[in-house]
Design brief:
single chain; mainly alpha; elongated
């Protein structure tokens, strides 16, 4: 197993670097210092090299914030995309298809904000907004649990038995996904 600081927080690693540099400057071997912190033997030499040089010192060992690439849409624009998608269909905005897909959302963002998003970026944005392909935002308000229970327990088995007696071919039970016998 590699010895490194991937399991440590940024603040902990910064403290390790500061303490390690002090111990190395007081005369301890960089290899021994690195091993005492559970790091690779070259770690002590690297922090010494980073801290040496004109005007650097301990400031060079401080943790920095990794910002990453900035988003193309602001959070308020993302919320506007969510509000436009919520309870509406793409054909209401002039698209031919009636279901939201990542490609249609990308086309909608291009039309609305003049910003080009990749399909991957659209997927990440939809995930941040709490939307997913598998999970609808809302259930149908007409949904009747009693009617569903009656269909699964009485109506569908009767239809399946009738089809079986008529030798209507093998099908698959949509609820258990098992073939009929």
């Amino acid at each position: 197993m590699k010895k490194d600081g991937r399991s440590q927080t940024h603040e902990t690693l910064e403290q390790f670097r500061m303490l390690g540099l002090e111990r190395i400057r007081s005369g301890e071997s960089p290899r021994v210092v690195a091993e005492s912190f559970g790091m690779h033997r070259s770690w002590g030499y690297r922090i010494t090299k980073r801290a040496t040089g004109r005007g650097k010192g301990k400031r060079a060992l401080k943790s920095t914030v990794c910002t990453g690439r900035p988003r193309k849409l602001t959070p308020s624009q993302e919320q506007e995309v969510f509000r436009c998608m919520d309870g509406r269909h793409p054909h209401q905005y002039g698209f031919d298809f009636a279901l939201w897909s990542r490609a249609i959302v990308a086309a909608f963002v291009l039309e609305r904000f003049d910003v080009v998003l990749s399909i991957t970026s659209v997927g990440a944005m939809l995930k941040r907004l709490g939307l997913s392909v598998q999970k609808p935002l809302k259930r149908a308000y007409q949904r009747n649990p009693e009617a569903i229970a009656q269909w699964t327990k009485e109506t569908f088995p009767a239809i399946a038995a009738q089809a079986k007696s008529d030798k209507a071919g093998l099908g698959v039970d949509p609820f258990s996904r098992t073939p009929y016998r």
